[in-house]
Amino acid sequence: MHVDEGTALALEAELSAAIGHAEFPCLGAKSALARGMVRTVACRSIESAWDDVRIHEELLKWSAAYRKDPIGLRSLAIVFEGPDHLDEEQFETAMWKRLQSLADKDVWRGQPYDRNVSANTDDPLFSLSFGGAAFFVVGLHPQASRPARRLSRPTLVFNLHDQFDRLRGNGRYEGMRAKILKRDAALAGTVNPMLVRHGEASEARQYSGRVVSADWLCPFRDPRAA
Questions:
Q1: CA distance 146 to 184
Q2: Which residue among 55, 63, 122, 140 is least crowded, i.e. fewest CB within 10 A of its CB?
Q3: Each residue's pLDDT expressed in tens, for the chain with a length of 226 residues
C-alpha cells in the first residue's frame, strides 16, 4: 500500500514551503519550484525497500522526460513519511541502502551508465546514474546539523548533472554557486566544508549532508563500476 493521497499532498506542501522559505539557500531549487519543475514522490519509510521499485520507475521517467525537453532546472524529490528521529549516521546508512537498491534495479533493467561520469565512488568524477542519466543527490532530514539540509521529513532530491553542465556552458553556474554558498554560510554561520566542484573529489561525500573524515569509505558499490 502506497502513501494515501492526503498524506502525499501534505508531504508535497511541506517540501514546497521549505524550499519557498526566504532563508532556504538553494536558488536552483527555488527556480525549479517557481516554474513547477519540482516533482514530489511521497513514500513510506527511508529505512524500507517498500517503495524502491516505484522510485526507480520515477527516475527512469524523469531521465526520459529530460532527454525530450532538457531546458530549465528541475528536481525529483523523494519524500518519506519518516522516521524523523534518525541521527546523521543513521540517515546516511538508510540513504545509501536506498541508493544501492535503486542502482541494483537499474542494472537489472539493463540501463546503461551515463558515459560522462564514473560509477566508481572513489573517482572524483563519480555520480549516480539512472536510466542512462547522471544524478547528484541531496539528502535532507530533521536531525541534519546544517540548517540547509534540515527538513521535517527524510528526503532525497535527485538533480540531473546535465542541467548543471548546461549552466556552465552558458556562464551562469559559477555566479549561482557563489550566491548559494553565501546564503548557506549566512544561514549556518559557517561555510559548508563538504562542498567541492564535480571533478575535485567524489561527490558521494556530499550526498548525506554529514561532515565526513578524509578516510570515510562509501558503503555503496554500483555493479557497473570497473
A1: 9
A2: 122
A3: 688 899 999 999 999 999 999 999 999 999 999 999 999 999 999 999 999 999 999 999 999 999 999 988 999 999 999 999 999 999 999 999 999 999 999 999 999 999 999 999 999 999 999 999 999 999 999 999 999 999 999 999 999 999 988 988 899 888 988 998 899 999 999 988 888 888 789 999 999 999 999 899 999 999 999 7
Spatial separation of the C-alpha atoms in residues 153 and 83, rounded to whole Å: 8
Amino acid identity, position 89:
E
CA distance 99 to 109: 15
Strands (E), 89-215: 128-130, 133-140, 155-160
**SS3 at position 134:** strand
Bridge partners (DSSP) of residue 128 are 135
CA distances for 76 relative to 36, 124, 199, 223, angstroms: 11, 24, 23, 24
What does each C-alpha distance from 79 to 14, 137, 146, 193 come to in angstroms? 10, 13, 18, 26
C-alpha cell at 3: 502513501
DSSP codes, 62-117:
HHHHHHH---S--EEEEEEEE-S---HHHHHHHHHHHHHHHHHHHHHTTPPPPTTS
**137 neighbors 91 (Cβ within 8 angstroms):** no
Digit-coded pLDDT (tens) for 144-161? 999 999 999 999 999 999
User: Which amino acid appears at position 102 of this protein?
Assistant: L
